[in-house]
Amino acid sequence: MGVSKRHIHSVGVNQLADLAKVLSHPARISILNYIGDCEGCLCKDIATTIRLSQPTTSQHLQVIKNSGLLKSHFEGKSQYYTINKDRLSKLKELFHDFFETAEQKCC
Fold first, then answer.
1. Other CB atoms closer than 10 Å to residue 56's CB: what's the count?
2. Which end of the chain has fewer CB atoms surrounding its CB within 10 Å, N or C?
């Protein structure tokens, strides 16, 4: 793979690309959809619902969490995941701006 040239692109473009990578896997989209319906979800419950192994689900959760789209907290030994609504709003804003700009240029 070639050398990354992220520095030549705007912060917004890089943020959108990073978040788009998170959404590029169907399991991660399923996880986000499921967590969106919960006030706090455990990895084992998520894994059962989306029918993936717990280690695989945990790996996807880590990718999503690293993007900032998830928050987590411990209650005892259990880690609960919730959607980071501020980051989700930023994602929506980035996608909206991207599509609005693309439509203006092509139409």
1. 12
2. N
Round to whole Å and give the CA distance between 5 and 22.
20
- Walk me through the domains of the chain, giving residue ranges and CATH numbers: 18-106 (1.10.10.10)
Span 18-68, pLDDT tens digits? 999 999 999 999 999 999 988 889 999 999 999 999 999 999 999 999 999
Long-range CB pairs of 87-96, under 8 A, 24+ apart, other chains included: 90/15, 91/19, 94/12, 94/15, 94/16, 94/19, 95/16
